[in-house]
Design goal:
The protein has 169 residues and is α+β, with helices and mostly antiparallel strands. It is 27% helix and 28% strand. It contains three helices and eight strands. Strand 3 (94-99) and strand 4 form a beta hairpin.
Length: 169
């Protein structure tokens, strides 16, 4: 009796597993009743996306690399202090301002494999800088530049001064 019970239990177990897998496969294969959001309207530009590299920016970056003639194997640290309006206060590099809180800092060497650190700052020594946030990333399609995005406390892109530290390896 226990042998026939084991056989029935095993058969039921296999049947349940097969139906579960088959039912799950059918459920996954069914088309969604709703159209995907991307098909309804084009994707909006996300906050934090880098603007496209302009022709002037590309020319400037190539000229900076050519003029420096520095080796990419050298380890170096660069700093740049930038005002909210995109003007460089002190340090190295050339600053290009794209839009609200969007900055590109170009150097005379390849910094694409380096480390970047940025903080909201004030160019003068009298004041505490305004509250805000800053993000930094390698500049797309420009190996000797860093992209910096500044935001106010609400997370909206805003023009804020910053200090950028770049360490190359």
């Amino acid at each position: 009796m226990s042998t026939s019970f084991r056989r029935k239990a095993a058969a039921i177990g296999f049947a349940v597993a097969a139906l579960t897998l088959a039912g799950g496969g059918i459920a996954v294969a069914q088309p969604s009743a709703k159209a995907p959001q991307a098909a309804v309207q084009p994707a909006a530009k996300r906050v934090g996306d880098q603007p496209p590299v302009t022709a002037e920016s590309a020319r400037s970056a190539k000229a900076a690399l050519k003029a420096s003639g520095a080796s990419t194997l050298a380890t170096a640290t660069y700093y740049t202090v930038v005002n909210a309006n995109g003007t460089k206060v002190r340090g190295t590099g050339t600053v290009i301002k794209y839009g609200a809180g969007q900055y590109e800092v170009q150097f005379g060497v390849n910094v694409s494999t380096g480390a970047y650190l940025a903080t909201i700052s004030s160019a003068n020594s009298c004041c505490v800088p305004p509250a805000g946030e800053v993000s930094v990333a390698p500049r797309l399609s420009t190996p000797n530049a860093v992209f910096v995005q500044t935001y106010n406390s609400a997370g909206t892109p805003a023009d804020l001064g910053f200090t950028l530290l770049t360490h190359t390896f």
